[in-house]
Design brief:
Layout lengths: L1 E6 L7 E6 L6 E6 L4 E5 L4 E6 L3 E4 L3 E5 L2 E10 L4 E6 L7 E4 L8 E7 L7 E7 L5 E10 L2 E11 L6 E5 L2 E5 L2 E9 L2 E8 L4 E4 L7 E3 L1 E2 L12 E5 L11 E9 L2 E7 L2 H4 L4
Parallel strand pairs: 1-21
Antiparallel strand pairs: 1-24, 2-3, 3-4, 4-5, 6-8, 7-8, 8-9, 9-10, 11-12, 12-13, 13-14, 15-16, 17-18, 18-19, 19-20, 22-23, 23-24
């Protein structure tokens, strides 16, 4: 049983998706069911104002520098199936939306991101509505102040894809999980997943087998019984989460929606 240790204030509505960035100033991006996206720091406080973009899916973000300006990029999919990035930078009062340099004429349904090494900012995989059994993978990089896309591979599955995640360099797709996140720290490599209306599940064999994971309420923190979104990071340089952090979002009381920070140290530290 993992403990809930912190949360955001009550949010403006039901949460559709969430994503984390790493680095020394990690951010949590929250996209809402009825439209809108906003950023929070790991103290649970909003960073700027909410923007009105309608976002159907988010992937974990990365930090970059454009000119002399540090920024954080969260890849995402709009309600109409376009690939975009949602940007935080000093001076912005709300998330900005920019194009990703991926040529795709079909409607995109979902995506995930992973580590790319020094050759790029991140690795990205996505699938489309009409091609929901095929994951297309490539690298998002930067040349000067311009984002670039280098296509890498196409992976076909024998099931319609509902979510994907990169773990230890492996790309894992699921036909049932609405969200999945890698929890990697040192020798520990685990996958967390969330099915609609169900509990968190933990796997250490790329989803071949899994076990349910319960979240214990804190003294003043209530975890959602039926989370609607999930993200995680096994090692963070900010926020004071020594063993990394899992974030789940959902209804914590009737009509009240929050993102709740969960301590996964039982997984990331005690198994070492």
């Amino acid at each position: 049983m993992l403990p809930a240790v912190w949360s955001t204030r009550p949010l403006s509505g039901a949460v559709r998706d969430i994503a984390l960035s790493g680095g020394t100033s990690a951010l949590l991006a929250i996209a809402y069911e009825t439209g809108g996206i906003e950023f929070y720091d790991l103290e649970g406080d909003p960073v700027g104002q909410q923007a009105g973009f309608r976002v159907r899916a988010l992937a974990d973000g990365r930090t970059a520098t454009m000119g002399d300006t540090p920024l954080t990029l969260f890849p995402g999919v709009t309600e109409t199936g376009e690939l975009k990035a949602y940007v935080f930078a000093p001076g912005l009062v709300a998330p900005a939306q920019i194009d990703l340099p991926v040529t795709e004429s079909r409607r995109v349904e979902g995506l995930c991101t992973g580590e790319s090494g020094p050759q790029a900012l991140m690795r990205l995989a996505y699938w489309t509505v009409s091609g929901n059994r095929i994951l297309r993978t490539g690298l998002i990089g930067m040349q000067g102040d311009t984002l670039t896309w280098t296509e890498e591979a196409m992976t076909e599955t024998d099931f319609p894809i509902r979510s994907c995640v990169f773990s230890e360099g492996e790309l894992v797709a699921s036909p049932s999980a609405i969200a999945a996140a890698a929890l990697t720290r040192g020798d520990v490599s685990a996958l967390l997943s969330l099915e609609a209306g169900g509990p968190l599940k933990l796997s250490t064999d790329y989803g071949m087998t899994s076990q349910e994971i319960s979240v214990r309420d804190g003294i003043t923190i209530t975890a959602p019984d039926r989370p609607t979104a999930l993200t995680a990071h096994g090692s963070l340089q900010s926020g004071g989460f020594q063993g990394g952090v899992v974030v789940i979002a959902g209804e914590t009381a009737s009509g009240t929606h929050q993102a709740v920070f969960v301590d996964p140290s039982q997984i990331t530290l005690e198994r070492r």
